[in-house]
Write a structure and sequence with these properties.
147 residues; mainly alpha; Leucine-rich Repeat Variant; globular
Length: 147
């Protein structure tokens, strides 16, 4: 966690090494640090995040997804679309909001339409609404800009 607060090359290198550690908790925190706390966007950082997008650990996968979305890596849209179902977590909703792609709107709206009235409140629902709002504001040309 400490490396997340330093922005020099040594901290980034350490986070990249820790993001592929054998311990899933270490990978989780390092992927969070690399993907969310750091803003460095290099091919090496994206490579680690892409690797962790397929990790065995759900939290590591979620942090990698958020990190790629924060870097506007639109290659994750198809991956994200496959995860925007009734069991999606805040990772997916935050990623959709950061990507702000109109391509995500049908899945997000379908998710909202499938909710019961009692589910239309709380933090998760607020994140869903934020994702829908961000994707609604984006123009169709934005969806292709970073691909």
């Amino acid at each position: 966690m400490a490396f997340s607060h330093y922005h020099g090359p040594a901290a980034i290198d350490a986070l990249m090494r820790l993001a592929v550690d054998a311990d899933p908790e270490v990978r989780d925190w390092a992927t969070f640090g690399l993907g969310t706390q750091q803003t460095v966007d290099t091919p090496q950082v994206r490579e680690v995040l892409w690797r962790n997008l397929n990790d065995d650990d759900e939290d590591v996968r979620g942090e990698a997804l958020v990190g790629l979305a924060a870097r506007r890596d639109l290659r994750v849209i198809d991956h994200l679309l496959a995860q925007l179902g009734s069991d999606c977590r805040v990772y997916q909703l935050d990623s959709a909001e950061q990507l702000a792609s109109p391509a995500l709107l049908p899945a997000l709206r379908a998710l909202e339409d499938g909710l019961r009235d009692s589910e239309r409140e709380g933090y998760w629902f607020g994140r869903l609404r934020s994702a829908i709002d961000a994707c609604s504001r984006a123009s169709p040309s934005d969806a292709q800009a970073d691909r």
